[in-house]
Write a structure and sequence with these properties.
The chain is mainly alpha-helical and 384 residues long. It folds into three domains: 155 residues, no CATH class; 78 residues, no CATH class; 126 residues, no CATH class. Helix content is 45%, strand content 7%.
């Protein structure tokens, strides 16, 4: 991305609302409170929030931010589309925080302009946005984008790793963000080697780091090398879930590598993250009695495609075919996020051995103890 001509400068406050202060805001709120007796409290609150969205400099006041906080906090760390592509976005000299926020929403980059503005004013960064041409994506949250805009274009690269991506998918994302790094070079570098991270204890030096490249949004220097990028992803894994995995390994007498393998399957199965520990418990119950896992994602990994499987696919001759081979697959099959890793570290204790997708749009599953109950659920939810 080309750097802007001339030095970047702080964004000045919006002139159209600079005269508005807490007194004017309180008067406005007072009028709406009175109106609330007639139109109802929710409508009055929404009117206040809409007013603040049009006069974003009011967010400099603590009382204003406190009032709108509950209406925007859920949006601050929520991306509009986690699988969206990147696109250019230009901040021109003199654009205000509010103008930038509204343009991000209008162009479909974020869900809420007010949430983006709230982040800026809460952290006192409303005047810290740098002009220039950036690469943004709806996969970034308002907080991510606010951080991106703090530095001039060319000073940092955004790398977004999605929960459940295979190593090859991570390599593709890295290659797009860092064109000088080929997918092959990244994949070759993504092995244990001589790395000393405690979560890699007991692994062979040539073992791939599939499963350990922690999904997150990263802001990196444009001159980063493949080993350096891998180091950042692995260190993030260690920092965020390392303690949990080490404790679970010691308590349950299970290798960390096996917990990560299980977590990678859970990641691909648990569309509803709240079910992570429950699904991990199903597979743990099966492992304890030597029952095959029958996990579709392991076959999909072997095929290199996350598509729906056919009956013929279930006959695949591969150590990753858990319909034919008992136990965990040889390696993790994806890079799981925190919910799946924590679920695999502490599987729920229950009597379930089966689950089937409800196919009702919720991403949830119906769990059962016996095969007969499982078959009934398959018929109930129209699952093949």
């Amino acid at each position: 991305m080309p750097a802007p001509r001339g030095p970047s400068r702080a964004v000045p406050p919006r002139t159209q609302s600079s005269a508005l202060g807490p007194f004017a805001f309180l008067l406005f709120v007072g009028a709406l409170v009175a109106a609330a007796w007639f139109v109802g409290k929710p409508a009055a609150e929404q009117a206040v929030v809409a007013y603040v969205a049009e006069h974003d400099t009011l967010l400099r006041q603590d009382i204003v931010r406190a009032f709108v906080a509950d209406h925007v906090r859920a949006e601050i760390d929520l991306a509009k589309d986690t699988r969206a592509d990147s696109r250019p976005f230009v901040i021109t000299r003199g654009e205000t925080a509010g103008q930038i926020a509204r343009r991000l929403e209008d162009e479909g980059v974020i869900r809420s302009a007010l949430a983006f503005a709230f982040v800026l004013y809460e952290t006192e960064r409303e005047n810290a946005l740098q002009s220039g041409s950036y690469t943004v994506s709806p996969a970034l949250t308002p907080r991510n984008i606010a951080k991106l805009f703090e530095k001039a274009p060319g000073e940092q690269i955004v790398l977004r790793i999605i929960d459940g991506w295979r190593l090859t998918e991570v390599a593709t994302a890295v290659s797009k963000a860092f064109p000088s790094i080929t997918k092959e070079a990244f994949t070759s570098a993504a092995v244990v080697g001589d790395r000393k991270n405690t979560v890699l204890a007991g692994m062979e030096p040539d073992a791939p780091l599939e499963g350990y490249l922690f999904p997150d949004t990263y802001f990196m220097r444009p001159d980063m090398t493949a080993p350096q990028i891998i180091g950042v992803l692995l260190d993030t894994f260690e920092r965020k879930v390392g303690a949990t995995l080490r404790a679970a390994s010691a308590e349950r007498k299970v290798a960390i590598y096996d917990i990560v393998k299980l977590a990678s399957i859970v990641e691909r199965e648990a569309r509803d993250r709240a079910e992570s520990a429950t699904i991990a418990g199903v597979y743990t119950n099966r492992l304890e009695i030597g029952m095959k896992l029958d996990a579709d994602p392991t076959i999909q990994y072997a095929l290199g495609d996350w598509r729906e499987l056919s009956l013929e696919d279930l006959k695949l001759d591969s150590p990753y075919n858990t319909y034919r081979v008992a136990g965990l697959p040889p390696t993790p099959i994806a890079n799981p996020g925190a919910a799946a890793l924590e679920g695999a570290a502490k599987p729920a204790k229950h009597g379930y051995f089966y689950f089937v997708a409800k196919s009702d749009g919720t991403g949830g599953h119906a769990f059962s103890v016996t095969f007969e109950e499982h078959e009934a659920n398959r018929v109930k939810y129209g699952n093949k």
